[in-house]
Structures
1.
Amino acid sequence: MNEPRYRISEIRQADPLAADPLLAVLPAMNRDADVPALTVALRTLLPLPAAADEWSVVESLAAMRDLGMFLGSLKRHGTEPLDAVPEALPVLETLGRRTDMVPRDTVHHYTTWNPIGLRRRTYTGEAMEADLQDAVRMVFPSLAASLDTCAALARLEPHDPGFAVSLDRTAQHVQSMVDSIDFTVANVSPVFFARTLRPYFEEIDVAGRDYLGPAAAQVPLWLIDLTLWQCDHSSPEYDEFLAESVPYSLPSWRDFHAAHTGGASAVSKLAAAVDWENADRLSPQLAASAVSLARVLRILKTFRARHIGIARKAYSDDLRLYEVGSGGAPIELLRSVLDLTRDNETLVRRATGRSRTPVASHA
């Protein structure tokens, strides 16, 4: 594949900074809260900006991944990384420019592009941290595939046979997210996340602008929301959150967002088709589209309900160290987006549930 950001095994294998030895002892530095050692390590790893400017996208992504582990570690221990190591600024800016991404590490660096096995990069060395990374890794193949199915959906109308097919494929992609969150519930305790891991995902200041840490909240479920319902059935709060979240995604995913913002959602197209048909019975194809759309919205609703369950525990009064989630959003926004998803599912059910039954096919 030509897209270098999808060359995952190459990015995982790359070590342009020769950072493996220092990253192997990073958990020990963090256990000791050894800010001087972390500072020296970050400074030691820095390449010359001119050298970084010659790297491939694959090498640049791997370098940002490894520098990012020290950025997050320093901030966790109360030190603004670029105050401690100001010479890192031109390197981060160069790597951001080379990769066409924000000038720090993201959830993609921390999970998908992170090596597995003995070279895995972690802040803590704890098994629960590795499990959380693996849970997030699980969803990215489905999210990447959802770009094609959602793009096809945006081009189709509910009477087209491919409309229901695209929705069914999208439902499979969303189901992988439900599986991921179930894996997280089973393997990562709220106490570990809230007290041990969450502090490593704090924002850092890069040239006067704050950039969020590589949190799972950056996983772009909005890729699917966008064409199903969000582009014309959203809320100002969710739109504002997306405006802050989209820049952390891959360039092609940002392009997808720009191309489909302001379009007609699957929910709107189905409602309009049902109103236009205005019959006692729906055609078989329209009925199939309605069933498929309701199904994928129901799976989305399930994911969001479980996500709220995790978040409520991790940010409960007796556990939380922070008022907002690692993606910058309060718990109330999660509830709001769940309500929006539920409202759109209800819209679909109401549009197709007025005592209508599919007409018999004459094929």
2.
Amino acid sequence: MSQKSASEGEPVTPAHEQLAAPQAQQGVTALLERGRTLSTPVLRAAVDRLAPPMDTVAAYHFGWIDAAGNPTHGDSGKAVRPALALMSAEAAGAAPEAGVPGAVAVELVHNFSLLHDDLMDGDEQRRHRDTVWKVHGPAQAILVGDALFALANEILLEQGTVEAGRATRRLTVATRKLIDGQAQDISFEHRERVTVEECLEMEGNKTGALLACACSIGAVLGGADEATADALESYGYHLGLAFQAVDDLLGIWGEPAVTGKQTWSDLRQRKKSLPVVAALAAEGEAAERLGELLAADAKNPEIGDFSEEEFADRAALIEQAGGREWTSREARRQHATALAALDGVAMPEETRRNLFALADFVVVRER
């Protein structure tokens, strides 16, 4: 897909700047809260299986305790994946509770990746507080991440059903793709140029694969056939790409007080995110100047001493070259593709409406 062809069509407002209908937002909030309510007790019980001090380190990561070990009501994340796993079960005609083991397993894998990613990326803040490696050290971040991945498979396989085996296969494939995506992401940081196609492949692995799994795993546990599970997986994959496109916008232009990350977060990490690669694929003075700066950056191992003005200049060049607008368009395109994947799936109309509403939420957010 070329930068030019992907930019054709009617202009759209950047996805994270749109306003959703209050009623729809309230419905999504209720779905997210349901996912949290049903999955958190099982998630906590799983974490309690870990040997000390991994159990307390994991509890800190999930926001259940502070660095001193005191109980807290910290931000434990958006809980999009658990909500999708429960709706997935409902799409297959099962009760939402059937999707709980899948919701917990996906959430464990997601947080395994966050623990490792924060360490590899050098991120010191997540959800408005210090990351695990910053508080407890790199070794604990690695160990707890590994333990969460093992727990995810344990939670599924101990169900002891044929459906649990099918669900585990989907989870392990998604995890392998997620790791592939992280490896691609890291390799891109040391390259001067990355194509839009390469970036979309990376983001499809790193974000799309696990969200796709969340959207199918509940259905599988609820007894859905492969065709239904595959259609829900396609919905989740494209929803993941929309989700990541919005994340890429927020990674450059997001408000730190809302996102919980530093200003120009992705630029500080030299990430070749969608706005960057789309800008580089464009023509014009801004794209050319951006390419020169990034080529110089690739030869300079130290980027931490850049001033705020230098990061702001790079962000401005990306926007002038069209990278911000292109990424917003791509978020909307992936959103539409996700919804179209549900066309052939027979499911309760309320569940379909909920899946549509959550897809809207993914591309209309500020964090």
3.
Amino acid sequence: MDDEGGSESAPSSDWAELTHECLTNILARLTFAERWTGPMLVCKSWLHAFKDPSLHSVFDLDTQFNSATESTLWWSPQFERKIDAMLRSVVEWSGGSLTEIRVRHCSDRSLAVVAERCPNLQILSIKSCPHVTDASMAKIAFRCPHLRELDISYCYEISHESLVLIGRNCPNLKILKRNLMNWLDPSEHVGVVPNEYLNACPQDGDSEAAAIGKSMPHLELLELRFSKLSAKGLALISEGCLNVEYLDLFGCANLTSRDIANASSNLIKLKKIEKPNFYIPRSVFHTERYGHWRLYDERFQTDVFRI
């Protein structure tokens, strides 16, 4: 305000003139969603800062999925391509520094790039990926030896062969999550997950259990929800994975209380076990429909998915 009651405009701040170090410091303080929905579009210097490797050591989309109601669009080829494009971009920007990936609905296309350019990867979570196969998992096994956590839940094109390779080539693996969808009561997935994928639920529970028991001796946490393993498979796990502290067998309908008690007696470090937690009469195994058996399981809740 001048002496005559007039006004003078304050000098405007030119955000584009901020140093690269200052910009990366600002971007590092933003949430993942905030970082991806604006700053990169401000100007070239902001885009350059956004691509700084220091901002891309972790790529976590899981929080975005967990905060949204599951959608049929997630299972579409278009959405898969979008996720692949994001993942490949982050891999490129990370400059080899990427250590943690938590994503869903990616494919072999992007995972092949991860295997090639992320030798320091320690955490890989790729739930609900219908087009991730043993081919890309073999590349991960051979080229990401520092892996210590793997989540391949609901990835039905990954077989026990991948588990063997991961176990042999990733000696630091401590956490494995290999959960399946609720095949006893698939109604919660009907209308969202394609029917052909629901019907493709892996049948080789004991083969996977054998692979885990024989090649992953250092596991501390193991999740096998709704696995079709039997007492034989569980025994192999208990004989080979003596360091397991947490074991989740919820929904494993082929196991009895006696099976679990016999197996857990070997696991001297076991602190917590999630048991199947329901009773199914033997006669139910002679039928083809399980829709009337309502079992509790975690469901996707909250808001619309946004990235």
